[in-house]
Amino acid sequence: MATQHSRSAARIMMAPAVILLLGWMLVPLTMTVIFSFKKYLPLRGGDLGWVGFDNYVRFVSSSTFWPSVQATLVIVGGVLAITVVFGVLLALLLDQPMWGQGVVRILVIAPFFVMPTVSALVWKNIFMDPVNGLFAHLWKFFGAEPISWLSEASMPSIILIVSWQWLPFATLILLTAMQSLDSEQLEAAEMDGASPLARFGYIVLPHLGRAITVVVLIQTIFLLSIFAEIFVTTQGAFGTRTLTYLIFQRVLESQNIGLGSAGGVYAIILANIVAAFLMRIVGKNLDT
Amino acid sequence: MARSVTPQRKAINTIAAWAVGLVIFFPILWTILTSFKTEAQAINDPPLFLFFDWTLENYAVVQERSNYMRFLWNSIIIAGGSTVLGIIIAVPAAWSMAFVPSKRTKDILLWMLSTKMLPAVGVLYPIYLIFIRMGLLDSRAGLVIVLMLINLPIIVWMLYTYFKEIPGEILEAARMDGASLKEEILYVLTPMAIPGIASTLLLNIILAWNEAFWTLNLTAAQAAPLTAFIASYSSPEGLFYAKLSAASTMAIAPILILGWFSQKQLVRGLTFGAVK
Amino acid sequence: MSLRSALCAATALSLGTAGAGVAETITIATVNNGDMIRMQGYSDHFTEATGIEVEWVTLEENVLRQRVTTDITTKGGQFDIMTIGMYETPIWGNNGWLVPLDDLSEAYDINDILPAMRNGLSHDGTLYAAPFYGESSMIMYRTDLMEQAGLDMPEAPTWEFIRDAAVAMTDREKEINGICLRGKAGWGEGGAFITTTANSFGARWFDENWTAQFDQPEWKEALSFFVDLMEDAGPPGYSTNGFNENLSLFQQGKCGMWIDATVAASFVTNPEESTVADKVGFALAPNHDGVEKRANWLWAWALGIPAGTNNEAAAKQFIEWATSKEYIELVAANEGWANVPPGARTSLYETPEYQDVPFADMTLKSIEAADPTNPTVDPVPYVGIQFVAIPEFAGIATQVSQEFSAVYAGQQTVDEALEKAQAFTSEEMEAAGY
Questions:
Q1: Which of A253, A255, A259 is nearest residue C73 as measured by Cβ atoms?
Q2: Is CATH 3.40.190.10 what the domain over C2-135+299-355 is classified as, yes or no?
Q3: Are A288 and B276 in contact (CB under 8 A)?
Q4: pTM of the predicted structure, to 2 decimals
Q5: pLDDT (tens digit, 9 = 90+) per residue, C403-426?
Q6: CA distance B182 to B175
Q7: Does C310 touch chain B (CB under 8 A)?
Q8: B–C: how many Cβ contacts below 8 A?
Q9: Is the pLDDT of residue B91 over 50?
């Protein structure tokens, strides 16, 4: 159906989006790459000349680099695991007949509307504070010593906060996918005496494969760059310094633009490795 | 997948689902409740659930301290403006990708998504310098542009997946009847894609509303949206749980209400092509 | 919004005070501390008197710092007045980024500003930011608990006394912690506190050749003492407690002692906020037995004008108003003397009414006891007590204090943290070219 005419029209229609995104990517990226080869210290007079690969070497050889890559991957991996597993379970539950389904769906979807800054502030102060937080009251009620969540269990706490924000998203997409499942197929399997577990494993889960891929892809894109949750809660202390946060510290706290820019370039490389990896899976899954 | 089940089974489902729903919603509920307490009641041990002296004092204090309406208005303009602009730019692109696919369509789509992975902090300096040069600092126009660019890949992708579900034959038929390209998009494609566009619109308003890095760093007094409003309540001196809760409630209420009212549209469209 | 400004302009005109007829507007970035929020409330008085409109950007401290630093280094010009501290002022002044405040009016009486504050906010003898309020740190303690423990707080106690008193006051059953101190990561939070503690144990950040000193025994002694003290008598989870967290603990009666900013005194003695308002005593920050330096810092939140602003004259007018004697009197008349911004002006401490305020005397003594040009026992090449006034410090100290906070949280040992701090600081200083 694609004639020569429509193909050139298509190209023209695609142009604004492509050009804008190209500009959005290339202009700052070029500037970042230029800065990364410079000794650029705003508090010491700004641009102090070219330094070759010094910033790149310094950034990776710093004792903070590998832990930050690890922290990034742990957070992304942890949140993905939690949201996918609980998302599937929740979708299964919400797909069942019940009274007040609409209201329950509203309750489940709500965290997605809360801005990350607010959710981090609320969790940090009103829930996880070791003295006045609700969890501390709860722990004391059961006679346990309150936990200082954000220091003693910093990583799980942050993963919990972020998962709470993204669980609704995963649940909704998985629920929509679930609803498109042919119920006759399930009933037939039930007649044949397939156990619930077998029905889930052989019919439901394969059907959800595509939706899970989409959830993983979209969330990874957002999770790689989470910032507010860490800035508000631990400020990168207690092993929660992600690569994004490390770059923030270099650029804004240390005011070392050159070093931070080199870090930015590394982060872009990491993001692209993850992206390439994801794209391979998704690309296959989306083709069908 | 509506199946008939026994009332007992339905009751169990209902209880389980409501329990889970309430647990997930509880942090928001608790924040809203806390916003009506006095500061002392907010940290009372044991925590007070419903039986306390309900007060609006915190809202009054927050309103007195900051001009909530201005922050709210900025949020609306920035979130709404960036989304609408994004959709205007994305519709033609998504159309051509869906109906005139080439070998490179998928690559372009995936490349667009990959631009979302650039760490914002890494390019703060360049963007700030560009904004100074163009006089866009602390302007709503500047933020509309930035947030549009940030969300454009998601918008294009969402629209692309909706458009792909529209059978090509219908368009063929319209073309046979002599519809121009413009008419084809305007009268045939758009009505069919309305649910998809609506949910794209909603999702991106939510994303733009909640974006807290650029909106905070590129604004001062004039264009600051609700994310900046909340940044002045994060840890003031003394007891602040009730005031923080009130400010939080004010910051999330508009989008929460919008989300709830339109959740059907949002849910219907929120598939990202995950459903075939 | 346009309606609002139109209304304001109309009001200004009808009062006949709008100088040239067009209302000038200045934008002020400030921190969300109580005194600044109060100033925001009173700025209507300023607008009425001068016709100059004021726009506020009120942000939490960390966000504010990030925001104003980005703006000043790129010359973004978003603000006409920035609220900055003693750390930024000399560095920015040196770079020529701030308008020198050397031509303030006669009535402003610049010589009335406390010498310690004036020196801390000057570079090469030129004042670059005017102090809105100033502070040192001191001990705030519960007189009732001290009595119960059978102890008597001297005016100038040692750390050894503090430790004994803290242990004696601690009653975990009743949720009373003998002492609450900052453990939160961040150079201005726990980093500031541990640095003053280190000073009082005879430690220092750098020697005269800018070599990091974390491998010296004094640091180990100071850090170990702090950790043991907090283990024995501190609140749970103190590794995330900063100024605000401790303030709220103290106000709820959960701390026997608290060593922190002198400005906290007005909050803990305010019966509307504090459950222990009438049971608070004050003393100088402690020293380690045999070390002459005490653990008190010096800080000021000050108002500075970024060079290149279009509203320099109006901004200066505002600064003169906000840091004037008249502003202090205005607050005193409306909120009582205990609530005026402290620590900036000599005349305040000579006011008879203010001398009756229970913490006034100890605040002044603490400020006078702090010497930023000579902060440590052994000589150092830097200025600043709880910070080192070099551009690299904020970045280094934040990461160092994160390592320390990990010790407080029980995630590593004192030795491990000091080793990492030494390595990291040396790395950064070398990168900066020292």
A1: A255
A2: yes
A3: yes
A4: 0.89
A5: 999 999 999 999 999 999 999 999
A6: 11
A7: no
A8: 84
A9: yes
